[in-house]
Amino acid sequence: MRMDGRRESSNVDDRRRLSGGSKAGLGIGGLIIVALITWFMGGNPLSVLSGADLGSMVSTQTDNNREFTPEEEELAKFSRQILAGTEDVWTKVFQQYGMTYRAPKMVLFTGSVKTGCGGATSQVGPFYCSADESLYIDLSFFSEMKQTLGADGDFAYAYVIAHEVGHHVQHLLGTLDKAHSQMARMNETESNRMSVRIELQADFYAGVWAYHDNQMFGSLEAGDLEEAINCAAVIGDDYLQKKARGYAVPESFNHGSSQQRQRWLTLGLRTGDLNRGDTFSPNFSDL
Questions:
Q1: Gyration radius from the chain CA atoms
Q2: Which residues have C-beta within 8 Å of that of residue 49, sequence separation ≥ 6?
Q3: Which band of pLDDT confidence, cut at 50, 70 and 90, is reported for residue 79?
Q4: Is position 103 within any domain?
Q5: Which residues span the domain enclosing 170?
Q6: Among 270, 267, 236, which residue's Cα sits nearest to residue 253?
Q7: How far apart are CA 180 and CA 138, in angstroms?
Q8: What is the pLDDT of residues 158-189, one digit of tens each?
Q9: Cα–Cα distance between 73 and 38 in angstroms, integer?
Q10: pLDDT averaged over the chain?
Q11: 250 within some domain
């Protein structure tokens, strides 16, 4: 992606020097690997964000002397630039529909973090909390994306951030809260299907963002689209389940198959049209 000269969002809370430690027997590398699998296989922050996970964590401490590597600093800068891009794009898109966009905060953390949804660790991966309208990211997640799944490249990383911002868009439009309310009254299979609809729409919104970001800033380069499509393929529920246990159980999918995720991301990328992103009305088999 072409990011030279792009502004960085100031709507970022950098808590990386607030270290909560890690669970006994599981270092930060292990936590992030678990986070990768948990997030990609459908970890739901609404069900896992609780103080229970923090019970075995050491107390949060501030390490003002911690030095960040050049790679960490570059990822932090890139994340701030991508967030700024989502602010610019969604402000414009909302204005086109006579609405006002309220930008989310991005919280960078290491190990564990306190959120409006409760306490969380890196195990849940990048996530969005509607209670405080913030997205939370441990930047080590991006390194594990590359090492564990081969999902590499700046646009693949941008996709992760844009997907979480997509959940914020759903929250502002009332879609997210409505869907979660319905899920509370559903059986497990129906709830999983509703989750798939939520996640595919967030993928679509990530594509919409990329379309408009490229229109506004000429940000996409050769190979960027391939990075996103590859990333969508390797984070499909079917791909990850087969990778983890050799077979897939479609009834347990809650993010969508590789084909579905590629389809909705690509639709957003090609059209940039907010009206094309209804993942709730079609028959589930047509997604």
A1: 18
A2: 115, 117, 118, 119, 120, 124, 127, 129
A3: very high
A4: yes
A5: 12-274
A6: 236
A7: 25
A8: 999 999 999 999 999 999 999 999 999 999 99
A9: 25
A10: 83
A11: yes
C-alpha to C-alpha distances, 222 to 136, 149, 160, 194, 209, nearest whole angstrom: 29, 21, 19, 35, 18
Question: How far apart, in Å, are the Cα atoms of 55 and each of 23, 89, 119?
Answer: 9, 40, 10
Q: 191, 183 in Cβ contact below 8 A?
A: yes
Query: 144 and 52 in contact (C-beta within 8 Å)?
Result: no
Higher pLDDT, 242 or 73: 73
Long-range CB pairs of 50-55, under 8 A, 24+ apart, other chains included: 50/118, 50/119, 51/118, 51/119, 53/112, 53/119, 53/120, 53/121, 53/123, 54/20, 54/112, 54/119, 54/121
Residue 287 lies in a domain: no
Q: How many CB atoms lie within 10 A of CB 207?
A: 28
Please say whether the dihedral angle defined by the alpha carbons of residues 26, 31, 33 and 37, taken in this order, is positive or negative: positive
Contact 137, 78 (CB under 8 A): no
* CA geometry: angle 26, 32, 37, nearest 5 deg: 110
Over residues 4-37, the pLDDT tens digits come to 999 999 999 999 987 554 332 233 333 344 444 4
pTM of structure? 0.84
* Per-residue tokens: 73: 């600093």
Number of independent structural domains in the chain = 1
Please tell me the predicted confidence (pLDDT) of residue 146: 75
Q: 115-145, pLDDT tens digit by residue? A: 999 998 887 788 999 999 999 999 988 887 7
Task: Provide the token pair at 132.
Answer: 């405080």
| Cβ-based neighbours of 222, under 8 Å, separated by 6 or more | none
